[in-house]
């Protein structure tokens, strides 16, 4: 099966300023009641797909969409913030 970015259409991602989302993934795993086995499985799958869980952040309240930064994937230029 081809990944969306291989097809070249419709792939976006978003992020937020770390100052707005101060809780780290590690903190979330320690304090949320999430089973460590589940967290490690998610991390392993993420790494296999090329992601790095170390900068992951967690928020427990709604995040206004206007505070998000969106990026799009283009095969020729990779990830970038659209103009």
Q: If you had to describe this structure to a student in words, what would you say it looks like?
A:
- With 83 residues, the protein is α+β, with helices and mostly antiparallel strands.
- The protein contains 3 helices and 5 strands; from the N terminus they run αββααβββ.
- A 3-stranded antiparallel sheet has the order 1-4-5, with no helix packed on it.
- The longest helix is centred in the middle third of the chain and has 13 residues, at 36-48.
- The protein is flat.
- The mean pLDDT is 85.
Kindly list the characteristics that best describe this protein:
83 residues, alpha+beta, 3-stranded antiparallel β-sheet, two-stranded antiparallel ribbon, 3 helices, 5 strands, 29% helix, flat
| CA gyration radius, whole angstroms | 15 Å
Q: Looking at the structure, what is the overall shape? A: flat
Cα distance spanning the termini: 31 Å
Percent of residues in beta strands? Answer: 15-25%
What class do helices, strands and sheet pairing give? alpha+beta
Please give the number of β-strands: 5
Quaternary organization? single chain
Order of helices and strands: HEEHHEEE
Average predicted local confidence, pLDDT: 85
| SS summary, helix count | 3
Largest sheet: 3 strands, antiparallel
Helicity level: 25-40%
Strand numbers in spatial order across the main sheet: 1-4-5
Are there runs of 5+ residues with pLDDT below 50, and where? none
